[in-house]
Amino acid sequence: MAEPLGLGDRFQSRFLAARQLRSFPWEELEQKLRISADPSLPVEILHKTVLHPLCIRYPPPTKYRRCFLTELIKKHEATTAEPLDDLYEALAGILNEEELTQGYKSYLLPTGAWVTLAESVAIISGGTTGLVTWEAALNLAEWAMENVAVFSQRTVLELGSGIGFTGIAICKTCSPKTYIFSDCHPCVLKQLRENIHLNGFVLEPETAPHTPTQPQGLEAETANSQQPEIIVAELDWGSVTEKQVLDLHPDVVLAADVVYDPEVTSALIGVLQKLRVSRGARKPPEVYIASTLRNPDTFLLFQAELDKVGIRWQIIPDHSNTVFPCDVQPNVNILQLFIEPASMT
Fold first, then answer.
1. What pTM was computed for the model?
2. Helix (H) or strand (E) holding 312
C-alpha cells in the first residue's frame, strides 16, 4: 500500500495535471496556516507547483497558473504572517506572459516517471474534441497498470487515441511489444506524434518521417531502455478496410471515450466486426472499451448494437487504485468485448 501523499505533494499532483482550482485541498491548507504562521508551507507548495522544474519547462496554461498563485497568496495573506516575496515575484513573472492556446498537463506515474502532454486550452479546438484528455482515458490507464499481463510483450491497437495519454502511460508502465496509436483527424495526429516524442519515445520512421532519430523530449532516457515499437496509424472508421485492420495484427484493442454519439458508435462497431474475419491460427484480440457515462441512452444503444451483431460483452469490475487526480470522480465503465470469428456467431 502506497504512503498517502503529503499536502505539498497533493497540491503538486493536481497542479501539474492542471485540475480545476476548486478541487485543491485549500481548506486543509487554511487549517495548517491558522495553526502555524510558518511561511515554509506556502513556499514548499510554490516550489512543488509553479516553480517545479517540470512546470518551468512544460508550463500549464498561463491563466491557470495566475489564478492558482492568486489563490495561494490569498490564503497566506489571511494569516498574520509577513508577506512572502517569493509568491509575489512568481506572480509578477506570470502576469507578463502571453496567453497561449496550448498548455501542458503532467501526470505522475506509480513508477515515479511523468506523462506530459501538450493540450489545447479549449475543449473544442480545430473542429475536434480530440485535443484534450478525457476522464475515461485516465481510468483506462489506471486499470491497465493493475493488469500489466494483458499488455506485456503484446501488440496493442488503440482506437481513437486522441493526444495519447492512455497509450503513453501504458508504454511507460506495461511493457507492450508494439503499441499502435490511431486516429483520423489531422490536427489530432500531429499533436499525438509530438506528445509521443515529448515523452521520449521514437516513432517508426515510416509513420513519422520527420521525427529526429534521437529523442529530445521529457524523458530521453526512455529510448536508452528497451522501449516498445510505436506506430501512429491514420484510421478512419468509416472507410478503413478489413485488410488494413487485420494487417496490424493486434493482440489487444483499446478505446477510451469513443461512445458518445450514435453515428460514431455505429462506425466503431463496424471496425470491431472487421476484427472477426478469420485470421488463420491467430486468436481474436482482447477488446476493452472505456466510457464515461454522460448519456445513459447512448451507452445502452452501444450495448444493444453489440448484441445485434453478436459481439458478447461484460462490464469489468472497478479497479482499486486511483492514480491520476480528477476534478470530479467520473462514472466510467470498462467493457470487455468478445470478438469471435464470424463462423462461430
1. 0.88
2. strand 312-315
